[in-house]
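Pipeline run #58 for the internal structure catalog. This entry was flagged by the ingest filter as a single-chain record with no existing model, so it goes straight to prediction. Upstream metadata was stripped on purpose; only the residue string is passed forward. Reviewer on rotation: M.T. Logging verbosity set to normal.
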Amino acid sequence: MTVSERLVAAQSDLSPAETRVAAVVLGAPADVAFGTVAALARAAGTGAATVVRFTTKLGYRGFADLRASVRAELSESLRPAAERIREPAAHDVVHLALHAELDNVRTTLEGIDRHAFKEATRLLSRRAARVFITSGEASAGVALLMRDHLSMLRPGVELLRGSPVRVVGELATASTGDVLVAIDVRRYDRWVLDVVDQAASLGLDVVALTDGPLSPLARRAAVAFIVAAESGGPFDSHVGELALVNALLAGVAARLQAAAGERLGVIESAWARASVLVERS
């Protein structure tokens, strides 16, 4: 089992202090891989004895055993693209990509909790609430697409991007009951975590698309979805994220069918009048 799988299996048995240790292990694996019991305890705001109990609950023989496992996983999943690209190329890259992306979509969509999905689409369909969308740099394209398409279904959708000054200022105008969609996988952009913290403090409902139930985003979210991001190449895949966003958009469209249809009709008519699109001849 991976460290993350062990954490999920033991999650219900962890004390609050041990849960903080788990958050550090997932949120800063590089620090754990090359750190000490004392350093992990300080980062989690607890004592060394808690770290030892935590490793035992996960089934490790001790901290050294946990650290070795984290190092092994880092060497595979968190290597920079500059290192991955030096690996020997697969014999059939297209075949490898096909299976990796099919697995990402299947794992992401089959893993959706239906109650969580219903709640997320409900939150995103409240027309009186504003929806803010933010993401890590690597997922910026997915966030932009979600903003554009959700804006066609309902008003009040904004993308939070740019400098921290701009992002903090825009979010400061939010109200309790508004929604923040946050998209990011490890290694997480620190500013995204700060935005999620700010949103939660303002009373916004946070919907997270991230890589595990104990990720920093998931732990701060009202609703969290897990995306698979494995890739046969040097970069993480965002196909799972895109598939999940498309599912959420379909769910919102179903909830807002009449109003969304009218809004889409107005947009389509404007495009037609301006002749901005060309049909295939």
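catalog note: The chain has a mean pLDDT of 88.
catalog note: The chain is about 60% helix and 10% strand.
status: ready for reviewer M.T.
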